[in-house]
């Protein structure tokens, strides 16, 4: 997955980069929520962008916008003050809606800190 230029400014603020099939959000002091913990919003943002990119990759060559319908995040454990990874799994893609599952973890991929389920609207561009 290559990071496209059209990512929202929030992705740049999070400092997201690609590493293998995952997105990495490098730790930064600006991501602290409660003392000693990552802010849940930054984790949710990382996961939403990972899901969006998975749908865009599946639509390669198709001109379309991808917009969130709903995003549900389950926070499974505290996020430590370290790099956070996320990987999205496309569960189903239809003509208008995609269903995506995303997992976020830190030092141990087998101990996720959050899991998300997303439904994304696919707005295909028509020739004018």
From TrEMBL:
GO molecular function per UniProt: thiolester hydrolase activity
InterPro entries from the UniProt entry: HotDog_dom_sf, Thioestr_dom
Taxonomy, superkingdom: Bacteria
Annotated Thioesterase domain residues: 36-111
Pfam families: 4HBT
CDD domains per the UniProt record, alphabetical: PaaI_thioesterase
Membrane-spanning ranges: none
Signal peptide per UniProt: none
The protein, known as: PaaI family thioesterase
